[in-house]
Every structure is written in structure tokens, then in C-alpha cells.
Amino acid sequence: FPARGRRFRAGENLGGRSSGVEHNLAKVGVVSSNLIARSIRLILSRAPVFRRFFRAPIVCYARAMRIMLIILALMLFPVSATTAAQPSATPADDVAALLAELKRETDPLKAEKLRARLRRAWLKQGTASARLLLAEAARAQGDGLVETARRLLDLVARRWPGYVTGRFRRALLLWQRGNDKAALAELDAVLKRQPAYFPAAMVKMRLLEDRRNFPGALKLCRETLRRFPAWRTLRQRCIRLQWRVEQDA
Length: 249
What we know:
Layout: H1 20-27, H2 33-46, H3 48-76, H4 81-84, H5 95-104, H6 108-124, H7 128-142, H8 146-159, H9 164-176, H10 180-193, H11 198-210, H12 214-227, H13 232-248
Helix pairs in contact: 2-3, 3-7, 5-6, 7-8, 8-9, 9-10, 10-11, 11-12, 12-13
């Protein structure tokens, strides 16, 4: 027997001993659930590779089943177009009111907080189903399931074409995957429906700059700055783009 006070290594005696009941059950060919659990813990504690081997398929299977159930629920209980087009129910987060307030605001710090509220208001314009699919797409992308995220965002864009946040997330994923042409087309569709949607304008500016289309980026920057005059970093970006246009002239 080990001396008193000896510290056992992690997992050393897991499953090493069993109770008398387990021993008697084993004699007649019955293995208790407690003994099975101990054996599984022993394997997982002593071999990290087993943890990675068993955990990854289970997580992927659970994620796939969750997404399938969500899509099935949407098919069984479709959302009407009038429900999908409803604006935010909170007057303080109404998009039109926030845009008007941002155009009058001169304090950069207050304007930054108003822009954050405006993004939340745009997000809330979608139905609960659309927001749920966006959340699942973000989780899938975080888990490395990029193709699953793309399919979910395609579903949101197809089912709720007027939901600018969903269309923007789709454009963002296309851009991150290197499909600049499709991303630009999606961003143009977002800005056509909601010209003040500044997240799409900022990404489009970046894409135009990467293509060395500095006049187009400058034009978009000035249009965005007219809607958000207190945006200090955007004003500095316009100045930098103006300098680039003059250098290329």
C-alpha cells in the first residue's frame, strides 16, 4: 500500500479499483455503468489524442444536427414577408432617428456611441429566425466550418433580401474567402438598399483601395462623411485618399 500523504498522479488509479458489487457483476458478465465511465475517463485522461479523436466528430455532428433542425423549423413555420420587413420596435433605436441624430452630432465620442446603437438597430431589423441563422453562421465560421457558414448566409440573403445586416455578413465572408468580385456585387446591393449602411461602405472602400481605385474610394468616403460628419478617423481617411489621388494624377 502506498505511504500516507503520497500524491497520486492525475488519473493514476482511475478505474484501477472497483467496488465489490462491480466485481461480482463482472463475474457474471455484467459490467456496471460506473465501471465503464471510469474506463472512459482513464483513457481520456492518459491519452490526449483520444480526447481530440472523440471530441471533434461529436462537436461537428451536434453542430450539423442543430443547423438542420433550425432549417427544418424555418421550412415548417415560414415567416411572412411583412414580418421580415418590420423595423425595430424600439423607438430609441429607430434607424431614421439615429441617422438624423448622427448628422447633427459634432462630438466624436458621442457619435461613436450612436454608430454602435445604429448597428444594433440594423441588426434588430431582421426577424428572430434571421438573427438566429446569423448567430449559427458566426459559430460555424468560428469552428472552421466555412462552407456551412456560407450556406447559412446564402439562406438568409435569399429568404430576407431586404435584411442589410444579413447581406453584409455574406459579403464579408465572400471577401474573407478572396472572392472580391462577388463581395463587391453584394456590397453594392447593400448600399443600394441602404446607402447609409456604413459597415458596407467601409469594406467597399478597402476593396477599392486594394484595387488602386482611389478616386472611387474617395467619392465613397466623402459620401459617408456627409452622413457622419463627426467621424474623425473617416475624415482623416478622406484626406489620405485625396493625397493618393493627387499623387496618381
